[in-house]
Amino acid sequence: MAETRTYLKLVFNTEGGGTHTISLRDPRNNLTSAEVAQVMQDIVSKNVILATTGELTGVKEAYISGTTVTPLLP
């Protein structure tokens, strides 16, 4: 049976000119853009993540994505 999974995708710019994405499964239904923006800015300002293309330098985008998963084996 197919299952739909929902993810909050947080996309950041990095100092090396790339991007780094954090995927969080099953975000709250009442999540606001202001909450997401604040958390993303906190992640950048506290410098808690080092991506393969360097430190995070800013917020690029955030969005909710859905994926349908159909198991083929148990």
What is this entry, summarized?
Helices cover 19% and strands 50% of the residues. With 74 residues, it is of the alpha+beta class.
Can you walk me through this structure?
By secondary structure, the chain is α+β, with helices and mostly antiparallel strands. It has one domain. 19% of the residues lie in helices and 50% in strands. The mean pLDDT is 96.
Question: Which percent bin holds the helix content?
Answer: 10-25%
What spatial order of strands do you see in the largest sheet?
2-1-4-3
Q: Profile the largest sheet.
A: 4 strands, antiparallel
Measured distance between first and last alpha carbons:
11 Å
Mean pLDDT: 96
Question: Keyphrases for this structure?
Answer:
1 helix, alpha+beta, 19% helix, 74 residues
Note the topology.
Layout: E1 3-14, E2 19-25, H1 33-46, E3 50-51, E4 54-69
